[in-house]
Amino acid sequence: MYCKFVILIFMLFINCTPKSTNYVAINSNTMKNKNTETAIFAGGCFWCTEAVYNQLHGILKLEPGYIGGQVLNPTYEQVCSGTTGHAEAVRITFDPDKITYNELLEVFFTTHDPTTLNRQGADEGTQYRSEIFYLDELQKKQAERFIVWLDRARIYPKPVVTKISAATTYYVAEEYHKNYYENNPDQGYCRMVIAPKIEKVKKFYTDKLK
Questions:
Q1: What is the per-residue pLDDT for 94?
Q2: N or C of the chain: less Cβ packing under 10 Å?
Q3: Going by C-beta distance under 8 Å and a sequence separation of 6 or more, which residues neighbour residue 145?
Q4: Of 116, 123, 124, whose CA–CA distance to 192 is shortest?
Q5: C-alpha distances out from residue 155 to 46, 89, 187, Å
């Protein structure tokens, strides 16, 4: 799995030369006995994140929303102002027998730039930060190990700035944000920003597609 991950990142960041690929994943399935698990990722605009994970098998539910801020029940307009402290995120309910948390992390780190602070492309502000919100200590350790591996192997030309934080209150976004790409495929942002991410997933993760 990680060999393919290195090749993909190399193609995205041609100046990077991995030094090591000895990342050791923790298998959450051996430590949990659940039919479903939940992950929360913030990797820029939640339209992008939702569309990416919507391509994968084992994904049971996707909820764009806001997390990590101080304002109660924030609106999209408030979050976009950058004054609430929230990140745009997606809460993912998944079947761990079909896709693991480690695999979700792999897709997360290959479909956004985790080296730019509070920015993804033209989207700039703390609401677009790269952050993993863990729901238990196992997820925390998995995320920490993944980032350590990325930096030690020098997968990216710059250090990973993705934060790892305990999950706080999650506010589900307004209804019109759900399935935004599917409902607005011809919108400019969808064609120029989201569509290339989806094509990347389809090309490099064929074994994980629905």
A1: 98
A2: C
A3: 23, 24, 25, 26
A4: 123
A5: 24, 24, 33
User: CA-to-CA distance for 99 and 131, rounded, in angstroms?
Assistant: 20
Structure confidence by residue, pLDDT tens digits, 135-193: 999 999 999 999 999 999 999 999 999 999 999 999 999 999 999 999 999 999 999 99
Q: Alpha-carbon distance 43 to 40, whole Å?
A: 10
Which residues carry out catalysis? 45
From the centroid of its chain, how far is CA 93? 13
- CA end-to-end span of the chain: 18
Query: Long-range CB contacts (< 8 A, 24+ apart) of 77-80?
Result: 79/127, 80/125, 80/127
On whether the CB atoms of residues 143 and 16 are closer than 8 A, the answer is: no
Output the six-digit token pair for 182.
Answer: 């599917």
Structure tokens at 197: 């991410």
